[in-house]
Amino acid sequence: MPADRPTSDHFLPLKPVELLVLTMLTAGERHGYGIRQDIAEHTAGTLVLEAGNLYRSIRKLESDGLIDESGRRPAADADDERRRYYRLTALGKRVLAAEMLRLRALVRIAEERRIIAPVHA
Amino acid sequence: MTSKRAPSNDLRPAPGERLYRALLHLYPKEFRARYGEAMVEFYRDRWRSDHQHGRGGVWLLWRAVLGDLLSTVPPELLSNLRATNRPTISSQPLPREETMSTLAQDVYFALRGMARRPLFTAIVLATLALGIGANAAIFSVVNGILLRPLPFAEADRIVAFSHEDPYWSISEPEFMDYARDVKSLTRLAAYQPIETSLTGEGEPERVQAARVSDGFFSILGVPTLRGRSFTKEDDMFGRPRVAVVSYGLWQRRFAGDSSIVGQRIALNGTPFEVVGVMPPRFDFPSPKVALWIPLRLRPESLWTRNNHYFVAVGKMRPGIKLSSLTAEVRALDTRWMRDFPETYFPDKVLKARIVPITDHLLGATRPYLISLLGAVGFVLLIACVNVANLLLARGEGRRKELAIRTALGASRKRVVQQLLTESGTLALLGGAIGFALAWLGLRGLIALAPPSIPRLDEVRIDFGVLLFTIVLSVATGLLFGLVPALKVARTDSSESLKDGGKAAAGTGVTRSVRGALVVAEVALAVVMLVGAGLLARSLWKLQAIELGFDPARVLTMRVSLPGQNYSDARAVQYFDDVVTRIRAMPGVQDATAMGWTPLVDGGGGWSIMVDGRVLKTIAESPSSQPAQVTPGYFKTLGISIMRGRAFTEADRQGAPPVAVVNEAMARQLWPGQDPLGHTFKMFNDQAPWVTVVGVARDIRSSGFLADVPPTMFFPYAQAGTSAYYTPRAMTVAVRTAGDPMALAGAVRQAARALDASAPISDVRSMDDVVGASTADRRFMTELLGGFAALALLLAGIGIYGVIAYGVSQRTYEIGVRMALGAGTRKVMLLILGEGLRLTVVGLGIGFAGALVAARFIRSLLVEITIVDPLSLSATALVLLGVAAFACVIPARRASGVSPTEALRGG
């Protein structure tokens, strides 16, 4: 692996908002407001992002190469074609996975120490 | 799934979208270019979705949007700054500290710190902004009205010249003598304010004017804007009639016509040639003066020495003191008293009244403005004390943080720099908001102020004072922001770290400093509350004074008949017809015409002879204020007839001359007797004897606070014979069943229909007239009350800050106390007691201060003394209440401390 190629670990830990955005994009392409809606839905409405906060994160993720703007559009009748849609890049997926692994390790510790009950899959 | 979430693909803009789009310009250009459109879409979606679900509303949406902007714009700007400063784009970003300028970094930290403590930040910013804003606004007003020199040349040498009671004015021979004999004056000019009807092109108009003698304009030292002022020849009898018009009249009536000089205007039907225009803002002797005409005394045939009817302005010789001028003039007065015993009666002393022109023009407003200035000064002091207090508390709480920084290698210089940047940023932000507040406040003040306050149009925001207040508040911020920094520099950082910050605030010195600050704050607030209380009580007392007539539902309107077209009989007929027409209108209960409007103007004082006794000299004769009224006057104004009868239609020209006198006149002339049937007459050989047929209740015709002058009422129809002349300008008063102003148009129309050439002016309700007479006082009292409330609020915040902070720092101690058995109640009382102790000390000092301060407003008090138990006890109660409220929140928190938590965690 060339030295200047960023490794996934270089981006860790992710900020909570970035983590959420990446996670939501795993379901498919989203535009900004769609990401907000997804986050709100998956956090039972406890976390709602505003435009400035969201697009600052998007800017960061985009410039780090974790997400990019999608060239494709959904069906033309479904939405306005000026909207910008975002999707995960390959690097983004790797970083997200790395972050999730890191979080899982943390969750394990918490489970072992009985801070939360272990989930038996 | 995506399309399901997009609420709509409607492209119409949502409400507020344009504003949002504009606000996006706060972001750096690159960011906006890249995401601006998307953010607007986001806003639109968000609005639609909220709207669809009936959630929140505009307020909630914008609260979120503004919060978002506030928290993301500054970091975005900063990171933009960093990005542009970065020399090369490296995939391995350098640590922040090395790439960012120190100042930008400190500002960034400061802003981040502020955003993290929104309550603290909001309180400090609001305190600073209110202190700065209120001060700059009020000082600008005071400066514009009081301090900025009057638009006269060498105003300090100009004096207003008149007589003390009972003469007030100056007579023609007196004026000639003064002008000739007084050596301390370079010049003296007489003037008489008059009203006149301006006719010619356009609507006939009633305007205020002044007859002025030669030298009037040169004493005031103001050159004309166009044309010339009066010459010595203009002031001579028999020369062509000329006039100088005001800038306002020139603009309003002549549309600023450049050929105004040389044009003719008609005053009361007589033509005058306009020879000059005065510059804007020259408004002596009254703000509404529209033109000046020469007085034209006739030295060869002056009126008698006892006919006092004008006043004067003079210019002192350079280097002469006011006291020596007064002494010289009064010596002259004393000599005249001796030389003219038939004119000046020994118990009516002639005494000149000479005051600097500034006092003459602004005297009534000055005490209010001074007390306002004092009040805002106090607000500023309290604001600074509060900021100091808050910053001290904040700084103490950060000792641990600062110790960590020092321990990690930050130099002390670096830490001090950081702290200074933080408090400086805070102070500057507060100053900026304060500036906006001052600007808004000043506009509000000018808009709300009653028109009777002089020179209000000259008020501009005073940048000097704005700068001063901002510098003061920034200095406060820096100074008190520095205290924790200096402490860090002094103390051993390992100590602060070791005790875990538990006892960090326990240092006795700062606690007592902060206690003293709160005491000072409370004391200042007490002074202001007492002052505002005294003024408010005075206003209530004043308004509770019985006027003697009922101003409710009365419409008044001034009608001025063109003199040359009307004989006495025609004038009487005209007002008879007007009143009859108005009475026939629906909604009208009664109507009358009267020579002057109570509280607005009066009839002066005329000398009379009583009960057939012929007096040798006028000096012995009593005087009384004449009022010419049509029948229906007493009923329309609701003035009770105490004895005898009011006027009837039968009291006409040719019928036996009759009069109604007021109680004051009855008491003065016929003490202990029944005035009915007694007679009096004008001090004039031709005048007939007039029989008193009724006594009317006293009305406070000259104002709430003025004495009721002896007044004699004449039937308007008989005034020409029994009271010298028949006035052509009368006030028509109408008592209505409903809102009087609703009838204004119809009443005006009725007067118009009978003579369209008669100017109609001052159409207003009697309630407005009464309100206007106390408007200055009410306005100032409300302002002072507002500032006192502000002071109270700030003091409350101060108390809260100190107590709450004390509690948070004493959690450990409180935990120990509770572990040792102190109950919740006891802990609450402990905290409350501490707050109230500070308050009571402040109250005591404040009362002492209030007694001193109240002396300055003594002249404004009505029927109360400076030690007013009600004001004092109300102040004490309010302050204790506020203090208790401010302490209850932290006290409850203290009593909720869990001993185990407190002892374990600290």
Short structural description:
The complex is a heterodimer of chains A (121) and B (906). Chain A is mostly helical and 121 residues long. Chain A has helices spanning 16-25, 32-42, 51-63, 90-112, and strands at residues 30-31, 67-69, 85-88.
Secondary structure topology:
The complex is a heterodimer of chains A (121) and B (906).
Chain A: H1 16-25, E1 30-31, H2 32-42, H3 51-63, E2 67-69, E3 85-88, H4 90-112
Helix pairs in contact in A: 1-2
Chain B: H1 2-5, H2 17-23, H3 29-52, H4 58-85, H5 96-99, H6 102-116, H7 118-147, E1 158-163, E2 170-171, H8 172-181, E3 185-199, E4 205-212, H9 216-220, E5 226-227, E6 242-245, H10 247-254, E7 264-267, E8 270-277, E9 289-294, E10 308-316, H11 322-339, E11 352-356, H12 357-362, H13 366-397, H14 399-407, H15 412-448, H16 463-490, H17 493-498, H18 508-544, E12 554-560, H19 568-583, E13 588-594, E14 606-610, E15 623-629, H20 633-637, E16 641-644, E17 658-662, H21 663-669, E18 679-682, E19 690-696, E20 711-715, H22 719-722, E21 729-736, H23 744-754, E22 760-765, H24 766-773, H25 775-809, H26 811-819, H27 824-854, H28 869-895, H29 899-905
Parallel strand pairs in B: 4-9, 6-8, 15-20, 17-19
Antiparallel strand pairs in B: 1-10, 1-11, 2-10, 3-4, 3-7, 3-10, 5-8, 6-9, 7-8, 12-21, 12-22, 13-21, 14-15, 14-18, 16-19, 17-20, 18-19
